[in-house]
Amino acid sequence: MRILVIGASRGIGLETVRHALQHGHHVRAFARSAEQIGIEDDKLEKINGDACNAADVAAALKGVDAVIVTLGLPKTMQGLGRTTLFSDATRVLLPAMAAAGVKRLLAVTGFGAGDSKARMSTVEKIPFKALLGRAYADKDVQEDLIRESDLDWTIARPGILMNRPASHSYEVLVEPDTWRNGLISRGDVAHFLVHAAQEGTYVGKAPVLIR
Fold first, then answer.
1. What one-character-per-residue DSSP string does 129-141 give?
2. Residue 163: CB partners within 8 Å, gap ≥ 6?
């Protein structure tokens, strides 16, 4: 496959680039600082761009089979104020994918976004709202936009992210009554995203991912 990874320069995005390349896919790594990605591979194309710029996104979509969105806020920006990054980028991406004829979309939000918030305990909700509430309010909007599209979408909701090696052994909780918080490595989230893209699984689903 030819996979476009939006938000590819760090975190889950960078791990997704690595994992996709390991599985033989062609990867277009899209980020503001894509040229700084420290991976060299004949199947890797690095494209500098702004996920909220329609021209940049349209150019990046040419010839791809699937899009994986792994946008995140720098830690220095978390909890400091309202953000619209996730919804703004999604409003740019969805019509651009339709125009390019690209149907497969996988997007990372997190446990606590959308209807998974109802599965959080009271103890979890207090620090969550203080630290991540503003970002997740926009991820709620992002999820609604994706759900309302006619794309073949999957929304991945990882639990608490860890910088541990990928175990390739984790839980994919699809049914709402099974959703709960837990730890998961960024590498395991990347593993899920790449395999769901290449196998066409979890279309129209928003599973919670935990170890």
1. HHHHHHHHHHHHH
2. 185, 186
C-alpha to C-alpha distances, 27 to 20, 39, 172, 178, nearest whole angstrom: 7, 11, 24, 33
Q: How many CA atoms lie within 13 A of 153 on its CB side?
A: 22
2-45: pLDDT as tens digits: 999 999 999 999 999 999 999 999 999 999 999 999 999 999 99
Return the bridge partners of 104, or none.
66, 152
Rounded alpha-carbon distances, angstroms, from residue 45 to 41, 55, 62, 135: 8, 18, 12, 29
Q: How many domains does the chain have?
A: 1
Domain that includes residue 31, residue range: 2-210
- CATH number of the domain that residue 71 is part of: 3.40.50.720
Q: Model pTM greater than 0.90?
A: yes
CA distances from 64 to 19, 173, 197 (A): 17, 28, 12
> Which of these, 207, 203, 199, 159, lies nearest to 181 by C-alpha position?
159
Nearest to 162 by CA among 181, 180, 188, 139: 188
Residue 111 identity (one-letter amino acid) = F
